Automatic annotation (TrEMBL), chain C:
It comes from the Bacteria. Residues 14-189 form the Cytochrome c assembly protein domain. The keyword Transmembrane helix applies. Belongs to the CcmC/CycZ/HelC family. This is Heme exporter protein C. Keywords: Cell inner membrane, Cell membrane, Cytochrome c-type biogenesis, Membrane, Transmembrane, Transmembrane helix, Transport. The chain crosses the membrane at residues 27-48, 68-89, 101-120, 132-151, 163-186, 206-227. One of its GO terms (cellular component) is plasma membrane. It is a multi-pass membrane protein.
Automatic annotation (TrEMBL), chains D, E:
One of its GO terms (molecular function) is heme transmembrane transporter activity. It comes from Hoeflea olei. This is Heme exporter protein B. NCBIfam families: ccmB. GO terms for cellular component: plasma membrane. The chain crosses the membrane at residues 12-37, 43-64, 85-109, 129-151, 158-181, 193-215. Required for the export of heme to the periplasm for the biogenesis of c-type cytochromes. Keywords: Cell inner membrane, Cell membrane, Cytochrome c-type biogenesis, Membrane, Transmembrane, Transmembrane helix, Transport. Belongs to the CcmB/CycW/HelB family. InterPro entries: Cyt_c_biogenesis_CcmB (IPR003544), Cyt_c_CcmB_bac (IPR026031). It comes from the Bacteria.
Length: 57, 232, 265, 220, 220, 232
């Protein structure tokens, strides 16, 4: 039987892990998308309305 | 004339104004505009033939006319003889690339299903046997549809148009897989349909053997969608 | 293809993806900072809180269990509103909001299940019981995952939007079931003590840390959600540009040129 | 519409043997449960209604994903969608009905036999049959929504089940509780049965409409 | 052959991550059970192995009938049949393998989690996993015969379910009884497990050959 | 010539004796004999074109040649350059009415699957991209096959013949749904195949645009099976 502290600790650790994981995934995803956009732009493909609405975000 | 039996309810009378009218239709697939600003008008006894290279958008156009795809803009209406709008879905037959028949059911079962499903209460049309006869396949009625050859299957799919009479025919490559005799037979069918006051719109790569048609050519040159289409 | 047609109006103007990117870009740092600050304060308060006389130290699990459970339900509610947006206004940004909320909602639901289990073991003596509250949360988790699977199954986001929205709305009945399951069926799980019509019945020393943590989780949710929405917008932008590029290479497409059709008679 | 019912039934009975498959699966479920709980006839007869209901629910999932897919593949779906809104809703309704007749009804009819195997009393078996008659159509109707959503997916089977099962839970709950109420004394049979019927009616109204909407949207 | 495996897996996963779908499906099935038989943890843990096995059988049955039919409808089957005998047998084997990988394996891997939810002991969960590893491929292999026969008969797959499910039921029964034998004391685990493995090996050898023969004969 | 890269392993050399020979083939469907006593011989660089009305038995004949149907009597053999019999299944491509592609997979995935499945270890053939290029569809490689138009789908099906090189092509209405430009493109493909020493047998209703062909016409007149065929 685990001590009660262990249950509390696992709860907080798991929460931290899940939330940080979600954050890391989201950041990595965003970075990958930006990279793809940059690649496309390097190939000279841009959004048609880019001139009007302005650039990458 | 092979439409025996019931009087030709579609027969052209003076003053008949049934018309299928497209106004500035625009069709898009994904991000490219296949066609834009397509307008035409087809009246009783007239046939419109859509041509164009593979991928031009013929099937897309026909599916829009049938109401299976929403047009990007523009409209297509069918007006009755009294000038009122008719629902295309109930007054048009659509024959697509696929035959809409169940392989495991007999030819006669398939056709009589569509007859009962598509013929309005007071509607007319050939009997199943007469329709099979009309496409020159008497004798196959009892075979499962899957046993037929490709051309025979297509001819049975054409027979569906005969068992429930509807004024507007939308045909997507109706003569695919047909031999030359059946090509003529098909031309006769359409002629008879037009003669009785029907309307037809067909997409095709092959001459259909019809003599008086309104041509509509899609160039197959697509352009990228802009404006409203570019959301992202 | 009316689903991508943007009609004009103040609402759609505000929800224009490009404008959203700009706005959320400005807002995000503030949101992130606020989440971080409230989280630190909340954590401090939860560990400073006295132990419960009944539950001992395990009461600290409450400070994450309860906010996670609330967020799991709130996230689904946000999705349901977005689903209405998809179905009624047909705005593509609504679909983006619904889709990108999915993994976050699933994560919070998972956390509430996990911390609940971890709490249940010392308190009830079992990891899991199939009572109404727990099971309905489990079903919520399944619905998140099912919707994610549905989005993944359709490669064209425009085609997944409406079916997913329909399903989201149909599944919304589960939310009141979760909320009121403890009242409708007698279960092991304890009934509401904070969000009650007659005011909270929980002791302030426990209530305040709980509320701060709840605020913090809510801010975290919105931070992550905005980030995910931005990613999703960029993903769709890349997809659109790719398709467009491919079409201008093959298929003989030329930009803005003459196209098929025209008057025939 | 009768024509559609007849056609779908003809296809169901001619190929696939959906009815048989459902009943056999049902039988398999009932056959393995005793292994778990041992030869305790008392317990068996107690959980019998629940097992029959679970078996029926799961058996209904078989073949559900093909409800519209087969029509889509041979092009018939175009003609079905090419109707006015009421026509389409009615079509979906009839297709659900055909699905139920081909898979649900056999389960209802097989229930007495399975009740025997589960050592259930006649009252109990009767109650299960009654609730199945009311409940299984609801599964078909709500299942149609999943089938319509997954119509374009190659292997929609699992996905449809996943999407549908959570929604089918109320049917199961009230079906089982009505069955139990019929045999345990203090509980009245009617209230849960009425709720079950209400759910069934609700799904019969909602399912075809939602499925029709999904089909209209899916056409390409 | 690797190409075929890859393609079939790709098609299976296109519809939303096959592995995840399998697990989800299983979770949904397991979640539904307590609604039926009630939240009695004791009872649940007793019927747990049976539930897991029923879920596995159901998951295998969903989509099994399409194993060759999809290939037939798009014409690929012709190219598959147009091989020498060994090529065809290998092809069937690989298709079964792909089917198992996409539907059976995820269930095996998810079993521990589900065991937890069903309050099953570690031994019991382990035994179920072991029997599932041995048994679920057998269902895919024998199911292939049914699928091949179904492809062959243009209008009468009725045979399929009648032929195949009775063959699959022994797998289910031995799988479940071996799982129980592992936890209930007097019964030895090995005998039923050996029988199960023998059935699996036999079906793995017989299934592809029989299915290949049916496909060769079916081509028209 | 678009076969770039590897040397044309099929190139005709003097003394090459690869031949596809049919001897007294008899085909039956149900109780009727579709054709009887069909004999022909096709050598490197030659094409046999089978014609006949719908239901004549063209597809049946081709499926027999491919080994997908058993002949009622008679035989079909493919002899290698050294006179030894080759297994048709491994040295022939069969293109039926259906395209043998998965709608849900991308065009490139479909083709590379067939490439790896049908190309022998040491075999040759175009790369997937080159094959798509050869049928004039570069740019669609990444699209799901189901997104293509009917004619584009058929062209991708033709591309399958290019990714794994096999000497004998069995083609059942290869040009169905093709536009006139693609018809010519197809004729060029077959020409190239023949020029490099390939053999082709095609069933069709439309002129294929090939200049030197061996014709074979099926009459479409079936007779009831008698004698050995009539068992009952
Ligand atoms: C896996 C197991 C569990 C799940 C899924 C779960 C789920 C939930 C949910 C959804 C809520 C929010 C309810 C609302 O807003 O009305 C909640 C609140 C709460 N839960 Fe749990 N719970 C679990 C286990 C536990 C355990 C073991 C305990 C303590 C012994 C517990 C104590 C609480 C408390 C104190 C609240 C706050 C109620 C309030 O003040 O409104 N939960 N839980
Ligand atoms: N479901 C779809 N999703 C996305 N794009 C599609 C879809 N169907 C067709 N397209 C694309 O739209 C274009 C037009 O297709 P359509 O089927 O209308 O052509 P078509 O003129 O009928 O050609 P064909 O003569 O080959 O039948 C093609 O480039 C095709 O790739
Ligand atoms: N699977 C089958 N079972 C029984 N009979 C069949 C089967 N397939 C075809 N037939 C019959 O055999 C005859 C020849 O069919 P086949 O498909 O060979 O014709 P075809 O010459 O290819 O015609 P088409 O030009 O229409 O493709 C037809 O009369 C058809 O009804
Ligand atoms: Mg077309
Ligand atoms: Mg043919």
């Amino acid at each position: 039987m685990m001590s009660h502290e262990a249950f509390v600790f696992i709860s907080y650790a798991a929460t931290a892990a899940v939330l940080l994981g979600l954050l890391a995934f989201t950041l990595a995803d965003g970075r990958a998308r930006k990279r793809e956009l940059a690649e496309l732009e390097a190939q000279g493909i841009r959004r048609r309305s880019q001139a009007v609405q302005g650039g990458k975000s | 004339m092979f439409w025996t039996g019931s009087p030709p309810f579609l027969a052209v009378r003076s003053g008949d104004r049934m018309r299928a009218t497209a106004t500035k239709l625009k069709g898009r697939r994904g991000d490219s505009v296949l066609f834009d600003d397509i307008s035409f008008s087809v009246g009783r006894g007239e046939a419109l033939v859509v041509t164009g290279p593979n991928g031009a958008g013929k099937s897309t156009l026909l599916r829009m006319l049938a109401g299976l795809l929403a047009a990007d803009s523009g409209s297509f209406t069918l007006q009755g003889d009294d000038g009122a709008d008719l629902p295309v879905a109930e007054f048009a037959h659509y024959l697509g690339h696929r035959n809409a028949m169940k392989r495991e059911l007999r030819v006669s079962e398939n056709l009589s299903f569509w007859q009962r499903f598509q013929r309005p209460e007071d509607g007319q049309g050939l009997s199943v046997d007469a329709a099979i006869e009309a496409v020159g396949l008497s004798g196959v009625a009892h075979l499962p549809f899957g046993y037929l050859s490709a051309g025979q299957q297509r001819r049975i799919a054409l027979a569906r148009l005969l068992v429930a009479r509807r004024p507007l025919w939308l045909l997507d490559e109706p003569t695919a897989a047909l031999d030359s005799r059946s090509d003529r037979l098909f031309a006769d069918l359409v002629h008879a349909h037009l003669a009785e006051g029907g309307l037809a719109i067909a997409a095709t790569h092959q001459p259909l053997g019809l003599d008086r048609v309104i041509p509509l050519e899609l160039t197959g040159i697509h352009r990228a969608a802009t404006g409203a289409g570019e959301v992202w | 293809m009316t689903d991508t047609t943007v009609s004009q109006g103040w609402f759609t103007g505000l929800a224009n993806p490009t404008r959203f990117l700009a706005l959320s870009g400005k807002l995000l740092p503030w949101l992130a900072a606020a989440s971080a600050i409230t989280l630190v304060v909340g954590l401090y308060m939860s560990f400073a809180a006295p132990e419960d006389y009944q539950q001992g130290i395990t009461v600290r699990i409450m400070f994450i269990h309860v906010p996670a459970a609330w967020l799991a339900m709130m996230c689904y509610s946000v999705m349901a509103v977005a689903a209405l947006g998809t179905l009624v206004w047909r705005h593509p940004l609504a679909d983006v909001a619904a889709k990108s909320a999915l993994p976050i909602g699933a994560a919070f639901t998972f956390l509430s299940l996990l911390t609940g289990s971890l709490w249940g073991r010392p308190m009830w003596g079992t990891w899991w019981v199939w009572d109404a509250r727990l099971t309905s949360v489990f079903v919520l988790f399944l619905m998140y995952l099912g919707l994610m699977a549905l989005h993944k199954a359709m490669d064209d986001p425009a085609r997944a939007a409406r079916p997913a929205a329909v399903l989201t709305l149909v599944g919304f009945i589960n939310i009141p079931i979760i909320k009121f399951s403890v009242d409708w069926w007698n279960t092991l799980h304890q009934p509401a003590s904070v969000m009650r019509l007659d005011g909270p019945t929980i002791h302030p020393t426990l209530l305040y840390p709980l509320l701060v943590m709840a605020i913090s989780f809510t801010l975290i949710f919105f931070t992550l959600h905005f980030m995910a929405m931005r990613n999703e917008i960029l993903r769709r932008r890349v997809q659109a540009m790719r398709r467009q590029a491919a079409q201008s290479i093959g298929g003989g497409a030329i930009g803005g040129g003459a196209i098929g059709g025209g008057e025939t008679r | 519409m009768m024509a559609l019912l007849k056609r779908d039934l003809a296809i169901a009975t001619r190929s696939g043997g959906a009815a048989m498959l459902g009943v056999l699966f049902f039988l398999a479920v009932v056959a393995v449960i005793p292994f778990g709980i041992g030869p305790d006839l008392n317990l068996l007869s107690r959980i019998g209604p629940a097992i029959l209901w679970i078996g029926a629910l799961l058996a209904s999932l078989l073949g559900l994903d093909r409800l519209f897919q087969a029509d889509r593949e041979d092009g018939s779906l175009d003609m079905l969608v090419m109707q006015d809104w009421f026509g389409l809703v009615a079509t979906v309704f009839v297709k659900c009905l055909a699905h139920w007749l081909a898979t649900g009804l056999p389960l209802v009819l097989a229930a007495p036999l399975l009740g025997l195997l589960m050592n259930m009393s006649a009252t109990s078996t009767g109650a299960v049959m009654l609730t199945l008659v009311a409940g299984t159509p609801a599964i078909s109707f709500i299942g149609a929504v999943g089938a319509a959503i997954a119509v374009a997916l190659p292997r929609g089977g699992l996905l449809v089940s996943i999407l549908i099962l959570p929604l089918a839970i109320p049917i199961l709950i009230f079906g089982v509780s009505a069955s139990y109420a019929a045999v345990t004394d203090p509980d009245p049979f009617l209230p849960p049965f009425m709720i079950l019927s209400a759910i069934a009616l609700f799904f019969a109204a909602l399912g075809p409409v939602a499925a029709a909407a999904a089909l209209k949207g899916a056409s390409d």
